[in-house]
Amino acid sequence: MLKKTTLAVIGLAASGFAFAGTMGPVCTPGNVTVPCAANLWDLGIQALYLQTIYGGAKERAAINQFNHVENDWNWGFRAEGSYHYNTGSDISVNWTHYSSDTGQAGFIGLIPVAPFISPFTQANQNRLDQINVVAGQHVDVGLVKKMRFYGGMQYANIQTEVTNYYPSAFIPPLAQRSPISLFDNSDFKGFGPVLGIDYSYNVTPAFSVTANGATSILYGTSRYDAGYVAENVALVLSSTYNAKKIVVPAFEAKLGLNYAYTMPQGVMNFEGGYQVINYFHALKTQPLQNPLQPILSTDYGLYGPYFGFKYLGNA
Question: Where does the record locate the signal sequence feature (predicted)?
């Protein structure tokens, strides 16, 4: 009897130990694959509706308050083309262009002659041209997630031109009165590596959520040129110039939706979303446009919606 009881206890303990050590269902990760070998091409165009924003140093003295210039929303575009080869590899070129003109009034600032403080109106122009040449690799993560990793080179040309128009003032060197204007210009041209990733999640076979993130490091020249001019005789009353080689980090982010319409000879993709672009410390400025202030670095950024289409066809 004792032997039977002992064997029963040992058997129960062994079965309990075996149960405690048993693992649950084993999760199998999704497969990461590349597309089958194919030769394809695509062409696309996007309309951009963006607004420019500068860093905090680029301020203006407004009547009764300190304020920065609110640039107008304006249209730009992004054109792109790619050649796809092998198993998901591609070479891609894209060009982003944006420009905006803004006119504002209600500001007050300094002038180099009496009365030294004067109201003014302002014309503000800015422009961005960005060109990327990159190589990419497409991968499928499971059935609904797709990713594209890419890297290459980026060129950026940023220009801002600001002109203040002041009422007529007495100019001692001329012994007469003349309207005064202030030119306040800064630009950056740089070139460097860019890395990024495109991501899409298929909600249905035709409809997907898309995201993009990219970063670049550009080396180039940032210039600043400012001065006061007596308009009647184009006499420069004072001027400041600065040029410096700098390294500018930049980033770009997008979040959007894509609809793919399959056609007999290819696929037409309709896409739209929201994007942000920022170049850190790319431009130069003097706070409140005061020639006695030090020259500081300031950011240049763009943000707003985009929409467009891209056609993918067989080579």
Answer: 1-20
Interval 230-253 mean pLDDT: 89
User: For the residues of 105-144, what is the DSSP string, one character each?
Assistant: EEEEEE-SSTTSEEEEEEEEEEEEEEEEEEEEEEEEETTT
Q: Determine how many CB atoms are found less than 10 A away from the CB of residue 96.
A: 23
Answer yes or no: is 91 within a domain: yes
Whether 24 maps to a domain, the answer reads: no
Dihedral sign computed on CA atoms, order 308, 275, 98, 92: negative
pLDDT digits (tens, 9 = 90+) for 201-211: 999 999 999 99
Region of poorest pLDDT, from 89-93, 150-154, 174-178: 174-178
* 19 within domain boundaries: no
CA 121/CA 87 separation, integer angstroms:
58
Contact call for residues 89 and 65 (beta carbons, < 8 A): no
Phi and psi for 13 in degrees, rounded to 5? -65, -40
User: What's the CA gap between 155 and 132, in Å, rounded?
Assistant: 7
Quick: pLDDT tens for 29-42: 568 888 889 999 99
Which residue range(s) make up the domain with 248?
32-314
Look at the block and give the residue holding tokens 């220009």. 159
- pLDDT tens-digit series, residues 123-155: 889 999 999 999 999 999 988 999 999 999 999
- Residue 179 placed within a domain: yes
Alpha-carbon distance of 185 to 201, in angstroms, equals: 44
Span 166-184, average pLDDT = 73
